[in-house]
Description:
This protein has a single domain (5-194), classed as Rossmann fold, CATH 3.40.50. The protein contains seven helices and five strands; from the N terminus they run βαβααβααβαβα. It has helices spanning 18-32, 52-58, 62-72, 90-99, 111-115, 133-145, 174-194; strands spanning 5-10, 36-39, 76-81, 119-125, 150-158. Strands 2-1-3-4-5 form a five-stranded parallel β-sheet, with helices on both faces. Helix 3 (62-72) crosses helix 4 (90-99). Flavin mononucleotide (FMN) binds at residues 12, 14, 17-19, 82-86, 125-128, 132. Residues 12, 14, 17-19, 82-86, 125-128, 132 line the site of flavin mononucleotide.
Amino acid sequence: MDSLRLLILPGSARAGAFSGQMAAFAARAAERLGLQTRVFDLRALALPVYDGDLEAVQGVPDGALALQAALLESDAVLLVTPEYNGFPTPLVINAFDWLSRIPATEQHPAGLAVTANKPVALLSTSPGPLGGLRAMNTLRQYLQMAFAMLVAPQQYALGRAHEAFDEQGELRDARAAQSVQGVLDALAALARALRRP
Ligand SMILES: Cc1cc2nc3c(=O)[nH]c(=O)nc-3n(C[C@H](O)[C@H](O)[C@H](O)COP(=O)(O)O)c2cc1C
């Protein structure tokens, strides 16, 4: 059987982001599990803040179609979110809001058709003690309710993220690394169970 294709979406718009470091760590761990991984830069899509007038004139921006294509080419998604005021970042929400506006055409399915029943797991990072837990819980509801994604029950919030990684980008705390591994194991098992033979 082909290896699972994992799309990793870090949610920060900042160089050196803790969520980016976690995404890179998770990508290496997933590759050791035999998954094909792709870390996808949402900021590089340069999506404008959702604007209905712009949509009416120009349609959905190409960046949203690029995200849709990346989702289509994946069997599972890992979203790594920072927390802004208890919420996921605007970068993540705006990208998914645009995705939800893609209409079906002869070239591609509707945006929401691509996320439906797609397995996703969540990680969060923060320098604070709760590790962005509130953002992750909000994201769980958003992805399940609006995007019909199958969110793995296992999740992990990395607190004190500014102290968590060593110079090689490895997690210093073995329990933290094990928790990430547990989330990846659960996501891979879910994706395998859902994959059509
Ligand atoms: C607008 C804003 C709001 C924030 N709100 C929270 C918060 O609610 N909880 C938290 O733990 N950290 C909060 N932070 C701090 C972020 O966790 C910190 O900036 C972190 O480095 C952002 O993630 P990144 O490193 O992946 O970019 C906030 C930061 C910003 C810029």
